[in-house]
Amino acid sequence: MAVAPLTEILADPFEERYAVPAINVFNDLTLEAVLAAAVENRSPLIVQTSVKTVRSIGSDVLYAMWTAMTAGIEVPVTLHLDHCPDRSVITECLRQGWNSVLFDASTMPVEDNMRQTVEVVAEARKYGAAVEGEIESITGVEDDVGSDTAAQQQSLDVALEFLRTTGVDVFAPAIGNAHGSYKKAPVLDAQRVSDIVAAHPLPIALHGGSGLSDEQFRDLISRGCAKVNISTALKETFMKSNLAFLRTAEERGKWDPPSLFRSVRQDVLDMTGALMKLFGSAGRAG
């Protein structure tokens, strides 16, 4: 229980074909609420921070929040640095105590990506941390990282060479998924997940999870997507919850910040709990 390595948290989900929500938090309220959802639903949880959040809050403050809020927690949780192309930020977070990092070198030529990912894996191992890797950009911009231009998909052979060479613990392939809100229902290459897992069994990270259908989630999870990233859905829940509460407060002429925080926290907790039930992680922590 308590704070655990990413590899440990994903071992059973990958083997038993369920998934753990990997949720991007951006302040103390969202961090506390998703952790509370994990406890309430007896679910493992991956808490993610973007580079933007690390820089805006500070790695020391973020990690202090993390250690304070996870002290004595009774479900397995882990802290992950999402999409980070900056090696200095990776080093900073690993030194602070992040449990895993996604080194995003997807804009580099594959050879350069592999070489640097090998270095990041070696660095992470010194801290007992895990590494997620990718060779293709996930379409869309998330917290100032990424591009709206669809990246070229690499061949299965290239993907497998990357996995064998780098020794990453989790892999995030591009399968037609995208960051942000989908403008139309995405057409996903689910077979690519199956092909990768069959040739090189390791947990697959599904990026751009916000907005996929329940059927798409279940299908991809059954193929080996054991880590499902959620960012936009949390941002939208947080902002819309604030907006709805403040509109009501204006109508009533009652301005009570603690009531606002409680209301938004509950909406974030409910959203997270619903994802845990959908992904099959609820109740898995005993």
TrEMBL record:
Its cofactor is Zn(2+). Zn(2+) 1 binds at residues 83, 179, 207. One of its GO terms (molecular function) is aldehyde-lyase activity. Dihydroxyacetone phosphate binds at residues 180, 208-210, 229-232. The active site is at 82 (proton donor). Binds 2 Zn(2+) ions per subunit. One is catalytic and the other provides a structural contribution. Zn(2+) 2 binds at residues 104, 134. One of its GO terms (biological process) is carbohydrate metabolic process. It holds the Pfam family F_bP_aldolase. PANTHER family: D-TAGATOSE-1,6-BISPHOSPHATE ALDOLASE (PTHR30304), D-TAGATOSE-1,6-BISPHOSPHATE ALDOLASE SUBUNIT GATY-RELATED (PTHR30304:SF0). This is Ketose-bisphosphate aldolase.
